[in-house]
């Protein structure tokens, strides 16, 4: 059988998390309409009769790395490409973006087999356009394969997986066949809370916010979780807490229900919102919030 590591790369909002969730048939990576929601690398594992694919989901790559957080995301995208066997580059629609030039450069440096997956195929009205686009794409880079997919509707995903498997090296299973992620439940809980924040607040959610799990205590029948939502300004805190704490309460209830499903037992979840000025622009503060924990 063939087993190995696959980096899923692409701009923010192209559908990386949606694809990952569909491929793994479980909710691991968070999805939202707001760009740049994936901040941590998440490994998803899919074992079939043909082999084992270990996905590495990267943060979107950004054109400008001025602020520390963007710089960090860029670096992560680079390191994710190291140590993988195949790269799947996800793009959205049939046109190139100015940032794609950066990706072409990174691909050349990596020198690995690349599959170009054109996502959101369901939104493309004239299917002939895809043939023309594929021809231009082949001029730009020697892609191993080009494939239109719809991560949302699940179209062509089996074909994508079989193309990936064929490009992986032959070998034994790297992880147990039942394992679907190497991330801790603690980490997944923080991701769930962040997803609920995004869903409830939409565009109002400050980009500079993050979730830190302070306490994670498992007891028979009940898991206690204390989490802090960090924001940069008092005004942002007020938005997250809402009138008479209503917003925070709703976010907590949404998150608790999903966490209970994830870990299969009752959860007591306590959320706090705290202000830490300038954290997203400060490398040291980022590290203290676990952003170097890769
Ligand atoms: N129509 C359509 N929408 C899609 C498809 N795949 C993803 N989307 C939507 O695109 C939006 C972004 O998807 P995500 O999966 O969060 O994107 P991402 O690449 O993980 O984004 P970041 O976390 O910002 O890096 C969501 O609203 C998805 O529902 C698709 O195949 N078709």
UniProtKB/TrEMBL annotation:
Chain spans, region G2: 36-40
Recorded GO MF terms: GTP binding; GTPase activity; ribosomal small subunit binding; small ribosomal subunit rRNA binding
Region (G3): 57-60
Domain KH type-2: 193-277
Ranges where the Era-type G domain occurs: 2-170
Subcellular location: Cytoplasm; Cell membrane
Assembly behavior: Monomer.
Protein name: GTPase Era
UniProt source species: Crenothrix polyspora
Gene that specifies this protein: era
């Amino acid at each position: 059988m063939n087993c190995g590591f696959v980096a899923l790369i692409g701009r923010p909002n192209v559908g990386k998390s949606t694809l990952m969730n569909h491929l793994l048939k479980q909710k691991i990576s968070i999805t939202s309409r707001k760009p740049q929601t994936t901040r941590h690398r998440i490994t998803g594992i899919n074992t079939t009769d043909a082999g084992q694919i270990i996905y590495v989901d990267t943060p979107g790559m950004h054109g400008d790395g001025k602020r520390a957080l963007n710089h960090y995301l860029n670096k992560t995208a680079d390191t994710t490409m190291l140590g993988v066997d195949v790269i799947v580059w996800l793009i959205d629609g049939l046109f190139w973006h100015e940032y794609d030039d950066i990706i072409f450069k990174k691909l050349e440096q990596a020198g690995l087999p690349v599959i170009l997956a054109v996502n959101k195929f369901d939104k493309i009205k004239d299917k002939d356009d895809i043939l023309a686009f594929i021809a231009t794409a082949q001029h730009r880079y020697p892609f191993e394969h080009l494939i239109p997919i719809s991560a949302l509707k699940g179209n062509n995903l089996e074909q994508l997986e079989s193309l990936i498997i064929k490009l992986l090296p032959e070998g034994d299973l790297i992880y147990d066949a039942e394992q679907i992620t190497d991330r801790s439940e603690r980490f997944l809980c923080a991701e769930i809370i962040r997803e609920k924040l995004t869903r409830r607040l939409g565009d109002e959610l400050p980009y500079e916010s993050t979730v830190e799990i302070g306490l994670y205590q498992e007891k028979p029948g009940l898991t206690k979780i204390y989490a802090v939502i960090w924001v940069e300004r008092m005004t942002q805190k007020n938005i997250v807490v809402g009138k008479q704490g209503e917003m925070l309460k709703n976010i907590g209830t949404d998150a608790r229900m999903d966490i209970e499903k994830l870990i299969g037992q009752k959860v007591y979840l306590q959320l706090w919102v705290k202000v830490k000025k300038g954290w997203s622009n400060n490398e040291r503060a980022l590290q203290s919030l676990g952003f170097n924990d890769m």
